[in-house]
Design brief:
Elements (H helix, E strand, L loop, with lengths): L1 H24 L15 H9 L16 E7 L6 E8 L2 E8 L3 H10 L9 E3 L2 H12 L7 E3 L35 E3 L1 H10 L17 E3 L5 E4 L4 E4 L3 E5 H14 L12 H5 L23 E8 L4 E5 L4 E5 L5 E4 L2 E3 L2
Parallel strand pairs: 6-11
Antiparallel strand pairs: 1-2, 1-4, 2-3, 3-5, 7-8, 8-9, 9-15, 10-14, 11-12, 12-13
């Protein structure tokens, strides 16, 4: 028994040293050096965005970091990545150059869900490949560190006209739906075409004309076409339930001097979508922060799911996650 125990300890030590080598290359040696092979994108919101939710024993403090591998299928060619995750924290730290046919096979094996969910858990084939070619290998050429985007977007001058500027004569005000809705995909298609919103999957040539002005507080801008005041930044990633609590707290504090902030409707959020990508790689006016690449909207999908607006890929989409979550960019109607 003792011999087996010693063998296990040696094997465990070897694996830990090999994993630490991976983290050292990624400049992560100071963080807890563990790969959670059981963690998946589906479980992350329950584990990290809903304190006290699924498997609370995994997260002992807000500073703890867990690492897991996943497939990013938002891009044209799916890729294998390493995620750093914590409470209210998410950062992709590396791309792993795995065989493309193996990655694609994993995506295909997820079936119809792959049409809607674009981040996938790895399968056993990829896990074994990672163990052999990344974790247990001295060759780290397959690990491509990604730039640190953890510092956030520092908002400067908007370059917009001041709030005293009138609406140009060639533009008219537009009243957008401002109530929560439950909609199917076909209704979203109709809504996008009705207002000629840009959606890079449904209506690439669409162009809703805004007229944004700077309110001079460094925190907000107003669209004089829709009459909506917007946060330039927003709220960090969290579940829908936690988002509503955060909005309630923000209103109690009187953010930017107002107490009637709310989650935008699908139409309101889509009104901000730009046809061209900005320097921050978002289809959004550069006056807005890039720290909220996709946002929750006040719309659910029939028969189930939550709608989001994604400024990174320029489209509206829904997620079937059991605890869907996203970033927040709040709005309010100017009186």
């Amino acid at each position: 028994m003792l011999a087996y125990l010693n063998l296990f300890c040696k094997l465990f030590k070897t694996i830990v040293e090999e994993i630490m080598g991976l983290f050292k290359k990624l400049n992560l040696a100071g963080n807890p050096t563990t790969v959670d092979w059981e963690m998946t994108p589906e479980y992350t919101f329950g584990t990290f965005e809903s304190w006290g939710g699924r498997n609370q024993e995994r997260v002992r403090s807000g500073k703890e970091r867990i690492y897991y591998f996943f497939i990013d299928a938002w891009v044209e060619t799916p890729k294998l990545c390493l995620m750093e995750r914590g409470v209210k924290h998410a950062r992709v730290v590396a791309e792993i150059l795995a065989p493309q046919d193996m990655v694609q096979r994993c995506v295909d094996n997820h079936g119809k869900v792959a049409l809607f969910e674009r981040t996938h858990a790895i399968d056993e084939e990829l896990k074994q490949w990672l163990m052999k070619n990344v974790i247990e290998s001295d060759d780290d050429s397959r690990v491509i560190p990604l730039k640190d985007e953890d510092r956030g977007d520092i908002l400067g001058d908007t370059g917009l006209p001041g709030s005293e500027e009138p609406l140009p004569a060639d533009l008219q005000t537009v009243v957008l739906p401002d109530s929560p809705v439950e909609v199917v995909e076909e209704e979203v298609d109709e809504l996008i075409r009705q207002y000629n919103f840009t959606d890079h999957e449904r209506n690439q040539d669409g162009q809703f004309s805004n007229y944004l002005v700077d309110n001079g507080d460094g925190l907000t801008v107003t669209d004089k076409v829709t009459g909506l005041m917007w946060q330039r930044s927003g709220l960090d990633i969290m579940s829908n339930r936690m988002m509503r609590k955060a909005i309630e707290k923000l209103n109690k504090e009187g953010f930017a001097g107002h107490c009637d902030w709310r989650m935008p409707t699908l139409s309101e959020a889509m009104s901000l979508m730009e046809r061209d990508m900005n320097a921050k790689e978002l289809y959004l006016h550069p006056a807005f922060s890039s720290d909220q690449p996709f946002i929750l909207v006040d719309a659910t999908r029939k028969p189930g799911g939550q709608w989001f607006v994604d400024f990174k890929h320029g489209r509206a989409y829904w997620s079937s996650g059991t605890i869907p979550g996203g970033f927040g960019r709040l709005c309010r109607k100017e009186k």
